[in-house]
Amino acid sequence: MSISNPAIDTRLSLLGDTCPILPACVPIKYRSFDGTCNNLRQPSWGSALSPLERLAPPEYDDGIWEAKIRKFGQELPSVRVVRSVLVTDENHPKVDMTHMLMQWGQFLDHDMIHVPVFRTANRSNIECCTREGGTIPPEMRHPHCFPIDIPINDPFYGPRGVRCLNFVRSMIAPRLDCRVGYAEQMNQLTHFIDASHIYGPSPDIASSLREFVGGLLKISVIEGRPYLPQNPQARGCIRTNGFACFVSGDTRVNQIMGLTALHILFLRQHNFLASALAALNPQWNDEILYLEARRIVGALMQHITYNEFLPTLLGRLTMDTYGLTPQTSGYSPSYDENVNPSITNEFGAAAFRMGHSLIQGAMNGGRWYGSGGLLRQAGLMDAVLRGLVDQWPQNMDEWVSEDVTNHLFQSAKRDFGFDLVSLNIWRGRDHGLPGYNTYRQVCGLPRVTNFQELLTIMDRSVVDRLASVYRSVDDIDLYIGGLVESHLPGSMLGPVFSCIIADQFARLKEGDRFFFEHGGHPSSFSPAQLQEIRQMSLAAVICDNADQIINIQPLVLRQPSPTNPRVNCKSPMIPRMNLAAWKQ
Ligand code: HEM
Ligand SMILES: [Ca+2]
Fold first, then answer.
1. Within 13 A of 250's CA, how many CA atoms are on the CB side?
2. Mean pLDDT (whole number) for 536-542
3. Residue 294 and residue 300: Cα distance in Å, rounded?
4. What would the pLDDT profile of 203-255 be if each residue is shown by its tens digit?
5. Nearest C-alpha to atom 6 of ligand 1 is from which residue?
């Protein structure tokens, strides 16, 4: 599906100096921290600081890197108008699922992608608007500013005098093929599902998180319980009683409490595994214990994602069509060294942001956002997890909670915040993403030629609103088109978002030599170990690592039901892996 860009070969020119130097690879048992040498022929594929892939060529304004502000010479509509007209806040819960579906999605996302934005020379944030939300003349702004203009008659920001939302352009990466061409955005994480958000995407960050005793990760102990370590230098967390931000392998760990809670669970899971392996294999040193525990945690991330998360989101049919359904025994033959595992721009800047529509409202009030630190209060961690496995998420659709549209990251001093949906659409234009219609074609669906034709795939009220803001069907932003398309049967998504997301998870399976189901590599699990990993579930991780959760449904992304009843954590319905398969 991917495309390559034939262009000038800079290896023959002076620009060749900036060509990334590729490491020489030897196959070993453990993944590298930065993801290099996963593919032995293409050592940088999927590694940290490498570029995103694309499913279709970009539509930059100048063909190179200028943000997409026009289509066929005509200016695209204001993102804030698109957002206000198309995406509003109504309560449409998805009553057979739990809010953990949303939370796992974000946790997983933070393993796969973080596109850094430009910063000033001294590494601070670039401000593209005045403090009061006023505009700054272009010649006075930082060159990487791309602020969002708010129309003066905006129903929400207008009366508050806000005319400008800060937005800084995404950083771009050197092209791996060393050819001059259009800009590709950079992923600062390992693209693979390898628990880089827990361990860190570089050897240095990984070391900073290790205890270097018994294979353990560093912790901070609060009232006798292990939590993530804290960084007194980092600002931006609610700091009561001298509490500082938590640190993990990903910088976004404090963003919301549910996310922080999952980070804490997996930190505890790692240390539990390291200690259990040490008891089984007293001859193993710190290094082996750490690497073996990390290898199992990475496999758990993948197993939970393919076994619980993706079927819930995509449905069985799409799972099978894209070869995503996990096997119940034996190795999977799916490794293909020709598959580029990298995250696609369409996935990161649009399709997987569908998760923002799943967010349940009423998490506001300073308790949920940026407040992971509150979790140290006795009982709150369990209360948050309990909430996630009890509460409904919202449906994936054009209704998105105002908590993240008008009030994202709102500070106590203000009555407004950011608009995540506007950011998503604007980010797509920053990355030059073609419109929704192009991806219908990429996904093997017929293009539409006018708004009337959209009536076969969307509700009339949506089509009318699309026609009221966009001049042509070709202008519809990918994020918006994907949010409003009718869902496939048995799926939470429509055909285009399904295709982009399923393609991504197929790449992350077929293109990952270390994928936990793959056999025949130095890194492969033994057949017995693989069978043990298959026993595990997110429910088991919660049961073993929360403070005092006693009852839970075996499939925590789904609501309890007669086939998924709340049972005691000790029930055989929630099996655990037996580590005896790791005894040497
Ligand atoms: C309360 C929960 C969440 C908050 C507050 C949040 C917030 C954000 C913010 C502020 C951004 C950066 C926007 C930009 O400037 O482009 C972002 C990006 C993103 N979000 Fe979320 N998000 C949440 C949940 C989720 C969920 C549930 C998913 C997926 C299932 C998700 C997927 C993504 C993806 C893929 C990106 C792009 C990351 C990158 O390219 O660096 N988010 N989110
Ligand atoms: Ca990763």
1. 32
2. 98
3. 10
4. 999 999 999 999 999 999 988 899 999 987 766 665 555 677 899 999 999 88
5. 356
114 marked among binding-site residues: no
pLDDT digits (tens, 9 = 90+) for 233-242: 766 665 555 6
Which pLDDT value is given to residue 174? 81
What is the average pLDDT value for the chain, to the nearest integer?
92
H helix intervals, 221-315: 257-280, 286-304, 310-314
The H or E element containing residue 424 is helix 420-430
Q: What confidence score (pLDDT) does residue 5 get?
A: 40
Nearest ligand 1 atom, CA 102: 27
d(CA 476, CA 484) in angstroms, rounded, equals 11
Give the residues across from 226 on adjacent strands: 221
pLDDT of residue 235: 65
Between the CA of 421 and the centroid of ligand 1 the distance, in Å, is 10
pTM for the complete prediction?
A: 0.95
What are the tokens at 387?
Answer: 């909430």
Residue 556 to residue 535: CA distance in whole angstroms: 15
Q: How many CA atoms lie within 13 A of 60 on its CB side?
A: 14
In sign, the C-alpha dihedral spanning 494, 500, 503, 509 is: negative
| Poorest-pLDDT segment among 5-9, 229-233, 361-365 | 5-9
Round to whole Å and give the CA distance between 499 and 208. 38
The helix (run of H) or strand (run of E) holding residue 85 is helix 79-86
The model's confidence at residue 4, banded by pLDDT at 50, 70 and 90, is very low
Active site residue 110: yes
List the residue whose alpha carbon is closest to atom 33 of ligand 1.
353
* pLDDT confidence band for 405 (50 / 70 / 90): confident
Where helices occur in 470-565 by DSSP H, the ranges are 478-484, 495-510, 527-533, 538-545
- Could you state, in order of their start, the residue ranges of all structural domains in the chain? 117-169
- Burial classification of residue 81, based on how many CB atoms lie within 10 Å of its CB (0-12 exposed, 13-18 middle, 19 or more buried): middle
Going by alpha carbons, the residue nearest to atom 8 of ligand 1 is 420
Checking 481-485 for CB contacts under 8 A at 24+ apart, the result is 481/435, 481/436, 481/437, 481/439, 482/350, 482/351, 482/354, 482/436, 482/439, 483/86, 483/87, 483/354, 483/357, 483/396, 483/397, 483/398, 484/86, 484/397, 484/398, 484/458, 484/459, 485/436, 485/457, 485/458
500 CB within 6 A, ligand 1: no
Decide whether any atom of ligand 1 lies within 6 Å of the 417 Cβ. Answer: no
